[in-house]
Design a protein that fits this description.
Elements (H helix, E strand, L loop, with lengths): L12 H25 L4 H4 L2 H17 L3 H16 L5 H21 L5 H5 L5 H4 L2 H4 L2 H15 L5 H49 L6 H55 L4 H10 L9 H9 L4
Helix pairs in contact: 1-4, 3-10, 4-10, 4-11, 5-11, 5-12, 5-13, 9-11, 10-11, 11-12
Length: 302
C-alpha cells in the first residue's frame, strides 16, 4: 500500500486561519463594541499618524535588533503561522511507515543496502511511496544524513544521540529566535504607544490657546497612541509569536520522532519495535494508536 494522504502538509490550513480570524474578530469586537456601547465615537480612534509612529518604529527596531537570518525567517514563518502545525496523526503514520520500510530493508540486507536510497532520495522507490515525507526537503535531509552515517559504519548509539541532539537544539534555537523577536517587538509596542502619545501631547501644547472642544479632540487623539500600542501588543503581535512558536515546536517533535526510531534501530531492535519507540514520543494529539500503526505497516507492499 502506497501512502497517499493528499494534503497532509496542509493540515490545519483552514483551522488555524479560522482561529486567527475568529480571535481577531473577538478582540476587535470586544474592544470596539465596548467602546461604542459606552458612547464612544469611532472617528476619534482613526489616527493614521499614530499608527505610523507605533508600527513604523516597531518595524525599525525589529530590523535594528535582529540578524538577516531572523528577518528572513520571520517573513517565511508568516505562511506556516496561518496554516498551523503541519503534522497530524496521518502524517506521523506515513513517517513511521517510511521508517519501518527502511529499517526492514536494513535488517534483511544490512545497513549498506540503504546507501542508494539515502544518497538520492528523490529517486528512491521507497521514498516515493511516501510523498508527503519526501516532499519536505529539510526533514528528508535530516533523516538521510543520519542513515548515511549508518551506511558508513557508525554503530555507537550514544555518540549518535549526542550529535542528533546538538542538531535539533541548533534547529530549535534558530526557530526560537524568530518567535522571540516577534514577542520582543510586541513587548516594545506599549512603550512606542507612549512615544506616540507624548508627541500628540506636544502637538496639543502648541494649540493651548484653542477652545476646549479643539483641545479635547487633540488630547483624545494623543491618547489613542497609548491605546493602540497596548492593543497591538497584547491583542495581536504577542499571540502571533506564540502561534509561530507552536508551529516550530511541532517541527521539533517531528525530528525527535525520527531520532528515537534511528537510535532504537542502532541498538538492534526489530523495525516494529523501533517505530514503536518513536510513536511513544509523540504528543497525544497526534499520536496514532499501536493498532493503527500495526495495521498500516502490515499492509505495506515492497
Amino acid at each position: 500500500m502506497t501512502m497517499s494522504g493528499r494534503g497532509i502538509h496542509r493540515v490545519g490550513l483552514h483551522g488555524a486561519t479560522m482561529l486567527i480570524i475568529i480571535g481577531t474578530i473577538i478582540v476587535l469586537g470586544s474592544v470596539m463594541g465596548g467602546y461604542l456601547l459606552g458612547g464612544g465615537h469611532m472617528g476619534v480612534l482613526w489616527q493614521p499618524f499614530e499608527f505610523m509612529i507605533i508600527l513604523g518604529a516597531a518595524a525599525g527596531s525589529f530590523v535594528i535588533g535582529n540578524t538577516k537570518t531572523v528577518l528572513s525567517g520571520t517573513a517565511k514563518a508568516l505562511g506556516p503561522m496561518l496554516k498551523g502545525p503541519r503534522h497530524n496523526k496521518t502524517s506521523y503514520l506515513e513517517l513511521l511507515s517510511l521508517l519501518y520500510t527502511l529499517f526492514r530493508l536494513a535488517k534483511t540486507k544490512g545497513d549498506l543496502a540503504l546507501e542508494s536510497h539515502v544518497e538520492k532520495p528523490e529517486e528512491s522507490p521507497i521514498f516515493q511511496k511516501f510523498p508527503n515525507v519526501s516532499h519536505d526537503h529539510h526533514n528528508v535531509e535530516f533523516l538521510c544524513d543520519y542513515l548515511r552515517l549508518l551506511t558508513l559504519g557508525t554503530n555507537n548509539a550514544h555518540e549518535m544521540e549526542s550529535i542528533i541532539d546538538a542538531e535539533i537544539d541548533s534547529h530549535h534555537a534558530e526557530n526560537h529566535a524568530i518567535s522571540k523577536a516577534v514577542n520582543d517587538m510586541a513587548d516594545a509596542m506599549p512603550a512606542l504607544g507612549i512615544v506616540a502619545a507624548v508627541l500628540g501631547v506636544i502637538h496639543t501644547m502648541g494649540s493651548i490657546t484653542e477652545p476646549p472642544e479643539v483641545l479635547g479632540h487633540l488630547i483624545g487623539a494623543a491618547l489613542v497612541g497609548t491605546f493602540c500600542g497596548v492593543l497591538f501588543s497584547y491583542g495581536f503581535f504577542a499571540p502571533f509569536s506564540r502561534a509561530i512558536e507552536a508551529v516550530h515546536n511541532s517541527d521539533t517533535v517531528y525530528l525527535q520522532c525520527m531520532k528515537s526510531a534511528i537510535l532504537a534501530h542502532m541498538q538492534g531492535y526489530a523495525p516494529q519495535v523501533s517505530i514503536e519507540f518513536a510513536r511513544k514520543t509523540l504528543p497525544p494529539s497526534v499520536k496514532p494508536s499501536f493498532a493503527e500503526v500495526e495495521d498500516t505497516v502490515t499492509n505495506l507492499t515492497d
